[in-house]
Specification:
Layout (H helix, E strand, L loop, with lengths): L11 H15 L10 H6 L5 H7 L5 H10 L13 H6 L1 H8 L1
């Protein structure tokens, strides 16, 4: 395994450290852009009914249907995990996601 500075890691301790460092870098917070209030105020506004619909929780069945309808090689989030990964481990993690 090669760490973030290009050094080949051969000892278990160094491999573990490089592994943790790599995945830690994937999970870091993303930089958000400032909110443009004028742009929001000029846009369309949802009706109260539509607003309420958008705030309802998804059911576990809905989440599974959407996930399993996606292509395996897509990554739905910033963590880089593919849809195929989530499908493969669904029996283990499904209850935690939903």
């Amino acid at each position: 395994m090669i760490n973030e500075v290009g050094v080949v890691c051969k000892q278990q301790e160094n491999i573990a450290s490089a592994f943790i460092s790599f995945f830690h870098s994937l999970m870091r917070p993303i930089e958000l852009f400032p909110l443009d209030v004028d742009l929001i105020n000029d846009g369309s506004i949802l009706t109260t009914t539509r607003q309420n619909m958008s705030m309802t929780q998804f059911t576990p069945a809905e989440i599974k249907v959407v996930l399993f309808s996606m292509q395996d090689d897509k990554a739905p989030g910033l963590d880089g995990y593919s849809v195929g990964f989530y499908k493969d481990v669904w029996p283990i993690i499904g209850n935690y996601i939903t």
